[in-house]
């Protein structure tokens, strides 16, 4: 089973950025723990701060992967292009967010990805990724 996690802008700063919202652990360390917990899954990771690069990666993996876990960060609320891309590809996408976006600013309550996602997991910290991964392997 081939699953890829795609993270958007500023998620490379996890562990440094707003720890009260995002926690103290960096994503690379957390990713290694996911790989260890799911040794039978070919789990890959990609991060970009650039909207077009995220779209390119979705198109690259969106027809032959078994699943995509996507945290598009702020692009969730602004990128019609990423939303359209999720709709265009065949691989199922689970949208994840570390924080509860509905307890934050109003503009974060809108997602251009959700209408085309297999599901949405919001507000469970880094464990949101674990829940998304479990949805593919069960």
Describe this structure in words.
The protein is an alpha/beta fold and 138 residues long. The protein has a single domain (2-137), classed as Rossmann fold, CATH 3.40.50.9100. Helix content is 33%, strand content 19%. It has five helices and five strands. The protein has helices spanning 19-22, 27-37, 51-61, 80-88, 127-137; strands spanning 2-7, 42-47, 67-71, 93-97, 119-122. Strands 2-1-3-4-5 form a five-stranded parallel β-sheet, sandwiched between helices. β3 (67-71), α4 (80-88) and β4 form a beta-alpha-beta unit. α3 runs parallel beside α4. The longest helix is centred in the N-terminal third of the chain and has 11 residues, at 27-37. The radius of gyration is 14 Å and the shape is globular. The chain starts with a strand and ends with a helix.
Which helices and strands, and how do they pair?
Elements: E1 2-7, H1 19-22, H2 27-37, E2 42-47, H3 51-61, E3 67-71, H4 80-88, E4 93-97, E5 119-122, H5 127-137
Parallel strand pairs: 1-2, 1-3, 3-4, 4-5
Helices, by number, come to: 5
Quick check: average pLDDT? 92
Low-confidence stretches: none
**Count of beta strands:** 5
The helix-and-strand class reads alpha/beta
Rg calculated over all Cα atoms: 14 Å
Q: What is the third-level CATH name, the topology?
A: Rossmann fold
- End-to-end C-alpha gap: 11 Å
Following the backbone from N to C, one meets helices and strands in this order, namely EHHEHEHEEH
Please write the CATH class name.
Answer: Alpha Beta
Spatially, the strands of the biggest sheet line up as 2-1-3-4-5
Strand content: 15-25%
């Amino acid at each position: 089973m081939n699953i890829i996690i795609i993270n958007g802008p500023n998620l490379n700063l996890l562990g440094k950025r707003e720890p009260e919202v995002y926690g103290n652990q960096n994503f690379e360390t957390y990713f290694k723990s996911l790989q260890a917990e799911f040794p039978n899954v070919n789990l890959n990771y990609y991060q970009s701060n650039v909207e077009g690069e995220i779209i390119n990666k979705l198109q690259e993996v969106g027809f032959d992967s078994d699943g995509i876990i996507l945290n598009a960060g702020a692009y969730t609320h602004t990128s019609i292009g990423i939303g359209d891309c999720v709709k265009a590809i065949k691989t199922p996408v689970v949208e994840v967010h570390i924080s509860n976006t509905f307890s934050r600013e109003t503009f974060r309550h809108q997602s251009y990805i959700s209408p085309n996602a297999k599901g949405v997991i919001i507000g469970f910290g880094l464990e949101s990724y674990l829940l998304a991964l479990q949805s593919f392997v069960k």
